[in-house]
Design a protein that fits this description.
The structure is a homotetramer. Helix content of chain A is 38%, strand content 16%. Chain A is of the alpha/beta class. Chain A folds into two domains: 105 residues, Aspartate Aminotransferase, domain 1; 245 residues, Aspartate Aminotransferase, domain 2 (3-Layer(aba) Sandwich), CATH 3.40.640. A seven-stranded mixed sheet of chain A has the order 2-10-9-8-5-3-4, with helices on both faces. Chain A has a three-stranded antiparallel sheet with strand order 11-12-14. A two-stranded parallel sheet of chain A has the order 1-13. The mean pLDDT of chain A is 95. Chains A and B meet through α1, α2, α3, α4 and α9 of A and α1, α2, α3 and α9 of B. Chains A, B, C, D: This is alanine--glyoxylate transaminase. Chains A, B, C, D: It comes from Olea europaea subsp. europaea. Chains A, B, C, D: Its cofactor is pyridoxal 5'-phosphate.
């Protein structure tokens, strides 16, 4: 039933889902278990405690929801906000666009701050908006830490500085899908209220778990948030946390054991070493792109992403043809250009459990 | 990191998540893949086609959402109904209770028809309500085909007959979580508008995929349904179906290959043989319970469930102690009694890829 | 490609190869590795140290040869003896017969001491032979600790006592294939010179590793043993042990990691607890056989085996039909009767990583 | 228990054991089975038939012995020859040296024909010896098709021509360990009498199965061959082949299913395409070595090996340091120089289920 790839293993360099370490594949190679037995809550407890470390939070409350990044977004918004709430959101690429689309469909009142694709969030506009908003009509700032479509990393510390400068109480909601566990991310230090990621990104698991951390302020906000939610309702989780059984509905046993193995690998290497490694491999990628004589889609060094590099191809080439040929002839998977940059860029994902030599695999592109 | 069980394999007889066949475990033992490559849509296409067969529908449209049964419920309701819509729902056990709770929190106007736990849905009340509802204020009938908490199977054919008799246009929404692929289930013949199940039940996969089938009438209803939905929105799926890329967001690669293997096993045995086997093993279970001198929680034979048997323990015994001891001393997992029947019943799940001998594993209870 | 068994898992109750614990299957789920890297010798070192514990030896030297029990036999004989050497060997069932056949084909001069199948080794004959052998023409005693064909366990302590009583220097070579790790086995205390087992027996691994322990006296004997040997030559191993690279030729990487996991499980439970558990499950099996009204092939309680029970069927039944039907109808694998007891007995293997409930699986035979 | 490698997967480029395809790892991810059930013989039958195809023989008889290449050598020699028999054997590197050592220890009378390491077998000497041997005292020619230590491929067709030219009846025994399934190999066409390989080489399985094919003439020779053999005796296999149960002792169930998957992959790609791919990747490797300014250990193009390249390092560098650093810093496994070329060469294995991109992994060496 396997689709035919030709000989050898697939070389996976899309920015997600990423390569799964052998240790994690092994940990997930198992039968189901009763999630109401004493074993699963005991395991869950260690995971909830340890997952906070990759968010660099001690005060946050984590939720591991059987969903994807899209569902994690929805959970972040509906648990903390009410229909009609004004939010500021930054449009800088396909994934921020999709989140904004979700925000609008959930009936929030979204101030969209747009940048050219390849640029970071325009935080000057944010500063003006916050400065002007004496009456605190802005309820939340929604920002994608790392825009996977263009390889742009936004500066979250500056967002926090702006809010603090004006003593603005807006919630600070962050999509960390392609950043957490790979880029420098500091939930507590940067005063982030909701941060989220997906299992298939830097954690290097299969898809299927949206991991969210909520600050005490975010939890407080749930009490007044009127957005309709059931599956994504954090309160159902909190109720089961109190009972010590942890799960309002059935989790994936395999993902729990996989997450345990993934966290163990990260802690063994050291989270800061993991982040430094991403920096090192990303730099090597950018140097390679430069050596090929191609341009990085990201327009300024301050926005360079250490998890994904979007490479601009010459105008007479269709980037999707490169991706197609890489897959068909070399069993090499690269990311397509999306929406505005379709045909113009291809993307190299360099996140997750990679090493120097593995990265060489896409070098044939030269 | 494995929690210690003692020697030997765990004997899993909860009504979900159920035992995964070795063939399915093998199929899922793999790295991630790019879901935008040509391979994943090609695989998805076969799955969408074949999954309809286990619902016994040719006209339905399937959705395989990265979620659980709870999420599948939410998807069924929010895609077809608007807040304030009147629905009739049957409360006969913990899972129907949870679905009703969801219906209420999603702001539907729910006529709850309650039965004693151990009895089936009161379809006489349904008939009266339908007969009276000349103006068609009832927009949907929501019913759990098989109540997992009490081992009660409702008669779906009768529901259809009632609706047809009164030519009532209410949508017919069915939770088939612990029935589809195990009990006789005929989506098209019974005129079901939305049917749903979860991957970790009779399909014998890990948790993480909610599978829903929508009739043409249900799809039509999405056009006017005003419930807020994004992650669960079928329209996003339909858009990607048209493009042939199938996925609005990242699916679990492992579950896709696992589902392929699971369906292959079912078709190899023959779906009707699978259903007959469930009948045979369920009957053996009920005979064993009788031989032990214990009572079935299900009050009448017409409601006997072929996927789960809830066993009533004598009043001087706490059923949760039996479950605890079975797990601790015999590495045998049984289902707890839930809510109203907590402490009073324990549950034997006999669904999924089981055989006669495997079933003997719980016989020690004698 | 999987041969069709019907639904559910296979119930494996042959006396080998036995069920592999999930933890061991997981540990073996891996790519190959360079066995000349620093990692493999480091792992090997821990295995050589720990494997001695299951033989209960501190002075023995272990060899883990990529072969089966038959190869381990050959290694035991050819490393310690010369063609023409006189040995005493006990014929009590098919496996002792096969070993004797090997001894004869390797040109040893074998005194075969035969018992009825179902009886243990006739140690009175041994005592006479040893008593008479003042000139020490007997170079070795070869005995199968547990005859897998008839479920008979020989008394090794008595063999040692006889040799000690007459101060006879014969080597004491023991086939522990279906005993080590399951029955009470004390290499050092009983003065065993060569003991051996296979990975697929009580260690609960796949087939492919013959594990042998040699006493200092056995190692001394290699210096004068003139039997031709290359692949099975312990000296090649000893040479590589000294260099710290351990392997004269390529080992199975997967079996090394599997053995690590298997030993970890045994030590976690405690070797003596493992042995006690085998005793308990064996007793339950014998009681069941009795309850069925059938006879144990083993003729006296002193020889009852705690790893395999051979069950005598009534004369009007062909036991191979029972085995065939069990497999075909119930996906249950039992051992056939072999050679002299073909058609007359079937065998239940109850060794390895089993528990009480698992054992119930063959109870349907009633 | 996993030895720590650092992040990312190991890059395995030793000439064996080689990378295992995911499909094969999956196929082997299973519990044991009763090898006396109907399923295992049915599987074995297909394997015996299909394995002949990779030897390009229709008249040969295959044996799949639970052993390594070293054991397969022993099986080839002891089944066809008697102690004292004169054989001609070519010493051109470490593996031919080891085979010759075995031949001598098995008491054959070996004419060793030595070449410089880096050169092929001196077939002129063979021609003289054969020409002179009017009385047919030479019973066998033993030759390693591909010497893994130096990356030298011998010309087997020429050996056959020499024998035919002089109508010499010597048996033609070939070690195809690092050639069969990767290099052009034609058992029948070249009149090879015994050919052998190991599972962990081009078949891309774990270690543990020695696969041997014997010509009708070789089978005839077993009748007079007086070498002592039991474990390796083909006659035991032939006896069980006739009974249709195939196995004189327990095989590895996992390797059988793995071999099935490995053969399926080879046939899907096409054996000749597999061989052509090895040629292509080998050429790329040699060009890379040239581009690095380094020398191939193989002294003439006619001997270039398409499965392994031994690279000569400058005299002021210790090649084992390169191998050590590659492993430690880059998680890249290369082959050491052995014996005479220790410290002077390192080896790149490019055999098995590889593709172009994977091969790039060692390019960092530049």
């Amino acid at each position: 039933m396997d689709y035919f790839y030709g000989p050898g293993r697939n070389h996976l360099f899309v920015p997600g889902p990423v390569n799964i370490p052998e240790q994690v594949i092994r940990a997930m190679n198992r039968n189901n278990e009763d999630y109401r037995s004493p074993a699963v809550p005991a395991l869950t407890k260690t995971l909830l405690e340890d997952v906070k470390k990759v968010f660099k939070t001690t005060s946050g409350t984590p939720f591991m929801i059987p969903t994807t990044g899209t569902g994690a977004w929805e959970s972040a918004l509906t648990n903390t906000l009410s229909p009609g709430d004004r939010i500021v959101s930054f449009l800088i690429g396909q994934f921020s666009l999709l989140w904004i689309d979700q925000q609008q469909r959930l009936n929030f009142n979204v101030d969209v701050v747009e940048s050219d694709w390849g640029q970071g969030a325009n935080l000057d506009v944010l500063a003006s908006k916050i400065a002007e908003d004496k009456e605190h009509t802005i309820k939340a700032i929604c920002i994608v830490h790392n825009e996977t479509a263009t390889g742009v990393t936004n500066n979250l510390a500056t967002v926090r500085k702006i809010l603090d400068h004006y003593q603005h109480p807006a919630l600070f909601l962050v999509d960390g899908v392609s950043s957490i566990c790979a880029l420098d991310f500091r939930m507590d230090e940067w005063g982030i209220d909701v941060a989220l990621t997906g299992s298939q990104k830097a954690l290097s698991l299969p898809t299927g778990m949206g991991i969210i951390c909520a600050s005490p302020k975010a939890l407080e906000a749930t009490k007044t948030a009127k957005s309709v939610r059931v599956f994504f309702d954090w309160n159902d989780y909190l109720k089961f946390y109190k009972m010590g059984t942890y799960w309002p509905y059935t989790p994936s046993i395999q993902l729990l054991y996989g997450l345990r193995a993934a966290l163990d690998l990260i802690f063994e290497e050291g989270l800061d070493n993991v982040i430094a490694r991403h920096g090192r491999l990303a730099k090597a990628t950018r140097l390679a792109v430069e050596a090929w004589g191609l341009k990085n889609c990201t327009q300024k060094e301050e926005w360079f992403s250490d998890t994904v590099t979007a490479v601009v191809v010459p105008p007479y080439i269709d980037s999707s043809e490169i991706v197609k040929r890489a897959w068909k002839r070399y069993n090499l998977s690269l990311g397509l250009g999306l929406n505005k940059v379709a045909g113009k860029v291809f993307r190299i994902g360099h996140l997750g459990n990679l090493n120097e030599v593995r990265l060489l695999c896409y070098m044939f592109l030269h």
